From TrEMBL:
MF term (GO), any: lipid binding
InterPro entries recorded: DegV, DegV_C, DegV_domain_contain
Keyword Membrane belongs to the record: no
Protein name per UniProt: EDD domain protein, DegV family
Ranges that cross the membrane: none
Length: 280
């Protein structure tokens, strides 16, 4: 039996290493639009160029989800298909994938397809993709792999640290005055996922205090070591400082640092951090 693990580009993992036998990994890109310029969020995207254009553009900037046809192409050639999308409360990607599933099953009724609305983005989806691959490598059945995925989703968390709100202001999600004050006073906003939406839970003056707050929140959420993804928008130094703080507190943490992809950079913005992890 052949397998496909499919994500949309809210997951910053463009390639999955050490794939199980007869398994493929596909990252289906969203599209980011700045004025008349469209950026495809794939491995060829120049994120710095996109952000420079975004900051220079004074009007609203947008993103659009993959089409059902894009998902149909990703489905081709596999018996067992598991697809994970960004939160349906933030994008139409899940609905597009569900439509593609219905269309695909009309012509391939023997296929097994599971589409998961993760209610997340970025690092937690990367961790889930790794775990799906591990389950496949163990020889689990489709239903067993799905059951493991759903159990792991319940433990999955994300924390955001934002130092710029330019895009959120342009899109009317944050008051202009609030956005300006955040930039001028070196304030970091710390947020986390709440049922598929973003809740701002803390404000911190400067990066050092913000990172200490992140570790405190991880502990409060019952993190006790394990897999962690630190994704950043041109802020490797911040990630390395946070890595040290996490390892000082949780020596068994297994941490990967990666640059954020296009979509996450689009919204987390310059110096933004996205921390994906799982609780006990």
């Amino acid at each position: 039996m052949s397998w496909k693990i499919i994500v949309d580009s809210s997951c910053d993992l463009k390639q999955l290493n050490n794939l199980a036998p007869n398994t493929q990994y596909k990252n289906v890109p969203l599209t980011l639009k700045v004025g008349d310029h469209e950026f495809i969020d794939d491995e060829n995207l120049d994120t710095k160029k996109m952000l420079a254009e975004m900051y220079a553009y004074e009007d609203r900037v947008t993103s659009s989800c993959p089409s059902p046809n894009a998902y149909l192409e990703a489905f081709e050639g596999a018996d067992n298909i598991i697809c994970m999308t960004i939160s349906s409360k933030l994008s139409g990607s899940y609905n597009s994938c569900e439509l593609a599933k219905s269309l695909y099953l009309e012509n391939h009724p023997e296929a097994n397809i599971f589409v998961l609305d993760t209610l997340l983005c970025s690092g937690p989806i990367s961790i889930l993709a790794e775990q799906i691959n591990q389950s496949i490598a163990k020889g689990l059945t489709f239903d067993e792999v799905v059951a493991d995925l759903q159990a792991n989703l319940e433990k999955s968390k994300i924390i955001f640290v934002l130092s710029s709100l330019d895009n959120l202001v342009k899109n009317g999600r944050v008051n202009h005055l609030v956005g300006k004050v955040v930039g001028l006073l070196n304030i970091r906003l710390i947020g986390q996922n709440n049922d598929g939406q973003i809740d701002m839970i803390h404000k911190a003056r400067g990066q050092k205090k913000a990172l200490a707050t992140v570790v405190s929140e991880m502990e409060k959420n019952n993190f006790n070591g394990g897999r962690v993804y630190l994704n950043h928008v041109d802020n490797l130094t911040g990630c390395q400082l946070l890595e040290k703080l996490i390892l000082d507190k949780f020596p068994t943490a297994d941490i990967t640092i990666e640059e954020a992809g296009g979509l996450c950079s689009f919204y987390a913005e310059e110096n933004g951090l996205l921390i994906g992890y799982q609780t006990k």
